[in-house]
Amino acid sequence: MTKSLQDTTTLHNGVKMPWFGLGVFKVQDGAEAVESVKAAIKHGYRSIDTAAIYQNEEGVGQGIKASGVPREELFITSKLWNADQGYDSALEAFETSLKKLDLDYLDLYLIHWPGPDKNKFIESWKALEKLYKDGKVRAIGVSNFKIHHLEALMSQTEIKPMVNQVEYHPHLGQLELLDFCRKQEIQLEAWSPLKQGQLLDEPTLTAIGEKYGKSAAQVILRWDLQTGVVTIPKSVKEHRIVQNSDIFDFELSAEDMAEIAALNKEERVGADPDEFTYGFE
């Protein structure tokens, strides 16, 4: 059982990644990003997940610096945006992200979306392999990749992704993808674990929560961890950041897990990766 905010999963290259972190999608750059990151780190978070397209890397970097926690104790992720895919442009985009974050290295760098051209993401991946070999990033991975994207990538490159960050919540169980990633030792990570707030009043989840004195959100985040999925809920409110992480003092039963699994509709709140072309035009 995952027992604390500092507990980690070991990626297939031996790097330890926290099971739980703060996502900063739609968090405004400047004070909001700085204060969110500071609050999360103050309350024990050690993983922060941003992306070039979020346009808040500078604020995230300032929050990291202001936290006073040594850099080596933190796990910082950013992502390569679609318009920057390709070998040379990916290398440049990485350096831009690093500069904005004001860091010497990243712990994890992801290709944000596969896009319609697999040759493009394969070239991008080769750039990430170089960054990894050069020691500029401790682990590399992808985001929003389906099984066929992963198979295409692995068939033409040298290093297997260490992480695949995808939309994952009780309405989108992605069971085949989860099983595939487990077998390939690719750590699945959930974005939008609360389905952008749409699951907070779900009767099954609220009923389970009542048994443990927990909210539906806390039940979902606990479910993520018990399905072996890293999770990074977003919040800009300090009390909510604390609440989200208050999930290490209970464990869902097998019956609870089955009830939550039965909610699966394979229903997305975000785009289908096979159809998402924004930024690739």
Automatic annotation (TrEMBL):
PROSITE patterns: ALDOKETO_REDUCTASE_1 (PS00798), ALDOKETO_REDUCTASE_2 (PS00062), ALDOKETO_REDUCTASE_3 (PS00063). Residues 28-264 form the NADP-dependent oxidoreductase domain. Keywords: NADP, Oxidoreductase. InterPro entries: AKR, AKR5G, Aldo/ket_reductase_CS, NAD(P)_OxRdtase_dom_sf, NADP_OxRdtase_dom. It comes from the Bacteria. The keyword Zinc-finger does not apply. SUPFAM superfamilies: NAD(P)-linked oxidoreductase (SSF51430). Coiled coil: none annotated. Belongs to the aldo/keto reductase family. This is Aldo/keto reductase. It comes from Evansella alkalicola. The lineage of its organism: Bacteria, Bacillati, Bacillota, Bacilli, Bacillales.
